Amino acid sequence: MDKKVDWKVDRKAPSPLPRLAYLDGRVVPYREASFGLLTHALNYGTGLFAGLRGYWNAEEDQLFVFRPEDHFRRFCESARLLRMELGVTPADLTAGLLELLRAEGYRENCYIRPLAFYGDESIGVRLHGLTPVVGMAAVRFGSYLGKEDGVHVAVSSWTRVSDNVIPARGKFAGSYVNSALAKTDAVLAGFDEALLLNDHGHVCEGSVENVFMLRHGVVVTPPVTDDVLEGFTRATVIQLLREDMGHTVVERSIDRTELYLADEVFLTGTGAEISPVTRADHRAIGDGRIGPIAAELRARYMETVSGRVARHRAWCRPVYAVTREREPMASGVAAVSERSVGST
Q1: 156 and 72 in a common domain
Q2: What's the rounded Cα separation, in Å, for the pair 319 and 326?
Q3: Which DSSP category does 261 fall into?
Q4: Does 259 share its domain with 162?
Q5: Does the annotation count 171 as an active-site position?
Q6: pLDDT score for 7
Q7: Is-contact 241 249, C-beta < 8 A?
């Protein structure tokens, strides 16, 4: 990949948009990453995306990206489903992401949006005879749902798109119209988020989140064959619940009415992180407050993604180079400390 950094920006200029973007192997000014009205993906939804988070760890003066190689592995798999030949590996994309974040100089929590899409300005529905474009941008980012005291969800009248219509295991641009319809209807009706059922009437996921419930002492989540995204936050949560917290986790279909009788319900996702649900369709979940398992899980998850849990440190990729310097201790014996520095 071309490692040339091609940009000149005013680092002090305030803007809600990123200053920079990564486009086909180069870091460029964000506004150069623009495309015409006839771009194939804009017209026909022939693109895919991923979502990653960077977490600032003030104690280490370091920005950690959570599970980037795993995210990019799924990204490349999704590209194969759209018959895209990207010409890059998950390792290449991870290196490009780190280059972009170092150039941006973020020292706060951020969200990264990688995309691959057919950039040809061409009329005609197809996947063949087109050329993919790969890009990324990163923005400062806080809470997605913004409901620290619990989320109120509505079961949507919109049915989740099935794998035989648009594969749910890929984050395809066009398929998220399904999620947008459900989300906006829920918000306009006074809810925070929507839950979608599949063709069999089983709960599959939120508009952009996987769903878990606690019932009779067992944590349950829909299987990946129930038209759900194979989320890495989902996989992380299952591992934390089983190995770190000692809970039984079962993957099986969930009926709508089971949610109403559950002791706890929570949503998971890169953007949503761990979002406890306290009400569903105007019914209280449990006692209507955040449950103890969801509360503990949320705390453990935030510690994990910010690189503070040694056993899961390998999931966290540091952005900035680490230098080792010696500092005098009170005893007069020199100690080695670590400090992160930018490599821009």
Answers
A1: no
A2: 22
A3: H
A4: yes
A5: yes
A6: 42
A7: yes
Decide if 7 is inside a domain. Answer: no
Any idea which residue has 């964000």 for tokens? 30
The CATH number of residue 61's host domain is 3.30.470.10
Number of neighbouring beta carbons within 10 Å of residue 289: 15
Rounded distance between C-alpha atoms, residue 125 and residue 174, angstroms: 13
- Strand (E) or helix (H) holding 257: helix 256-261
Among candidate residues 24, 71, 76, 19, the one with its CA nearest the CA of residue 317: 71
Query: Is residue 318 in some structural domain?
Result: no
Tokens of 248: 């039984």
Reading the block at residue 109, the tokens are: 């929590």
Extract the tokens encoding 195.
């839950």
Domain extent at residue 123: 20-140
By DSSP bridging, strand 110-118 and strand 52-57 are antiparallel
Please give the Cα distance from 31 to 202 (Å, whole number). Answer: 43
Q: Give the C-alpha separation, 71 to 231, whole Å.
A: 9
What's the token pair of residue 239?
């591992």
Does residue 298 sit in the same domain as residue 202? yes
| Contact assessment for residue 222 and residue 254, using Cβ atoms and an 8 Å cutoff | yes
The single residue of 4, 8, 171, 183 carrying the catalytic annotation is 171
At residue 203, does pLDDT exceed 80?
yes
Looking at the whole model, is its pTM more than 0.85? yes
Assess whether 104 and 172 both reside in one domain.
no
* Contacts by 228-232, CB closer than 8 A, 24 or more apart: 228/168, 228/169, 228/204, 229/168, 229/169, 229/171, 229/205, 230/74, 230/169, 231/268, 231/269, 231/270, 232/67, 232/70, 232/71, 232/74, 232/270
Q: What's the distance, Cα to Cα, between the start and end of the chain in Å?
A: 17
- Which residue, among 57, 68, 109, 71, has the nearest Cα to 309 in the 3D structure? 57
Residues 133-187 have pLDDT tens digits of: 999 999 998 878 877 889 999 999 999 999 999 998 889 999 999 999 999 999 9
CATH label of the domain that carries residue 291: 3.20.10.10
Does residue 324 lie in a domain region?
Answer: no
In a domain, 170, yes or no: yes
